[in-house]
Specification:
about 350 residues; about 0% strand; elongated
Length: about 350
């Protein structure tokens, strides 16, 4: 059958040898020869046969290492059972998959039960959002305390990480407080129930830390953008707004991507404010007005402290830290927030005159 030119004969031989080895695992001294035979046959058979072979070898501890590696790098439908279960795969093999294979292969590695800390660190180092999310959802993975800390840091920009991290068994009280700052209402409730976090105390602590950091550090230089670039940002906002695609989350992302003009024009368009009003609020001695503008368009107050920190880094340290921390008082309606914003802007304009 091995000498036959018929593909069917090679397939029958390959699957027959596999079935025989399952029933009677080969002795170590002949496994190398057997591995060469199986590898040669596997390279000559069709995709469906390789898929069947991968399913049969997924739990076989006798399977030849070279053959398992070949299947692990095959098409994802073939590789999936190998990546999920094969006891023959080593850490080095999975790292090769992470470096060379598709994102679907990488996700399967991240989902693998009892994944080692060494492989988990490589996934975190590569910082691919989909793979990080799969790893965060894998409660059996051996993620180090520093690895969990880095996942929480990544969750600031990768929203999909937040939900699995709130349920992760290795999330500590300290990391839960950090994660709490940039999640939505439902996830804050889940974190608060698990770790007994006091939202008001946390917000006070965060704001005090932010204020201290700005007092102790040099005033950052403002980000300067050309008039042409600002005009392109304005046109982008106008296009999104006309298509009803401008959302509060878009403004949060603009701040995180350090695109201040995009944030300014977006906030003005979404809230029905003028650009001059928004710029005045951004350069005020207190963040109170800009908070009300953000609240008016639906930006969650839980992310405001982190946002204002980013804005100050782009805006030469403004707005200042003077005034009441109004975001600690609880949520306001959009209409009330808009009225409070306009009243503050009007008062500031009168004072300037």
């Amino acid at each position: 059958m091995a000498r036959s030119r018929s593909g069917d004969d090679r397939q029958r031989l390959l699957l027959a040898i596999t079935a025989l080895c399952d029933a009677n695992p080969p002795a170590e001294e002949i496994s190398e020869v057997l591995g060469e035979v199986l590898l040669m046959l596997a390279q000559q058979v069709e995709r469906d046969v390789r898929r069947t072979l991968a399913e049969r070898l997924a739990h076989a501890d006798w399977a030849p290492h070279a053959l398992i590696n070949m299947l692990a790098l095959d098409q994802i439908q073939i590789a999936r059972p190998i990546l999920a279960s094969s006891p023959v795969l080593r850490d080095e093999d999975m790292i090769v998959v992470l470096l060379q294979a598709t994102i679907e292969h990488q996700i399967e590695v991240a989902r693998r039960p009892a994944l080692s800390g060494r492989v988990a660190d490589v996934i975190i180092d590569r910082a691919e959002p989909a793979t990080l999310t799969a790893l965060a959802s894998n409660r059996t993975a051996e993620i180090s305390p520093d690895g969990v800390r880095r996942l929480v840091e990544h969750s600031r920009r990768i929203a999909a990480l937040r939900a699995p991290l709130t349920r992760h068994p290795r999330l500590t009280d300290v990391l839960a407080e950090q994660l709490y700052q940039w999640v939505g209402t439902a996830l804050r409730q889940a974190i608060g129930a698990r770790f007994q976090i006091d939202e008001e105390d946390l917000n006070v602590s965060v704001q005090e830390a932010v204020d201290k950091a700005f007092r102790d550090s040099p005033t950052p230089a403002p980000v300067v953008e050309s008039a042409e670039f600002e005009e392109s940002e304005r046109r982008l906002v106008a296009k999104l707004h006309a298509a009803d695609q401008l959302r509060p989350s878009y403004l949060v992302r603009a701040v995180r991507e350090r695109r201040l003009n995009l944030f300014v024009h977006g906030l003005a368009a979404l809230g029905g404010f003028s650009v001059a009003e928004i710029r005045g609020a951004l350069n005020a001695g207190s963040p109170e007005a800009i908070y009300y503008a953000c609240s008016a368009v639906g930006i969650d107050r839980a992310v405001f402290v982190a946002m204002i920190n980013e804005i100050r880094l782009m805006n030469g340290g403004a707005p200042g830290t003077y005034g009441a921390q109004v975001w600690l008082r609880g949520s306001m309606s959009a209409a009330s927030s808009a009225r409070a914003f306009r009243a503050l802007v009007r008062d500031n304009s009168s004072s300037a005159v």
